[in-house]
Write a structure and sequence with these properties.
By secondary structure, the protein is mainly alpha-helical. It is built from four helices and no strands. The chain has one domain. It is rod-shaped and about 105 Å long.
Length: about 100
């Protein structure tokens, strides 16, 4: 009978994670977070830089089109320093004067 009573006793082991397992999981999560934030930061920096270059390109083209439009309408040429277009150096004037 003692054999049955010994087998009927449920194991009283502690359920859950040990402190070492929790520390390992926390360390892995920290490393993954650090790496992913670094990658995101690099990606975001590249996007911002590309956006600024595109904005500068578009603003230069807008100024060039404004200068050309003023020339076609017969108005005085614009005085923008970025207006180094065909309208300001006379090549459009030669083409339209023929």
């Amino acid at each position: 009978m003692q054999m049955k009573s010994a087998m009927q006793i449920k194991p009283t082991g502690i359920r859950g994670f040990t402190l070492l397992e929790l520390l390992v999981a926390l360390t892995v999560a920290t490393i993954l977070t650090t790496v992913s934030l670094n990658v995101y930061s690099t990606f975001h920096h590249g996007i911002v830089e590309s956006s600024l270059r595109y904005e500068q390109f578009v603003s230069e083209k807008v100024n060039e089109l404004r200068c050309r439009t003023r020339f076609v309408r017969g108005l005085p040429l614009c005085d923008f320093p970025l207006c180094e277009s065909r309208a300001s150096n006379g090549s459009i004037r030669l083409r339209f004067s023929k």
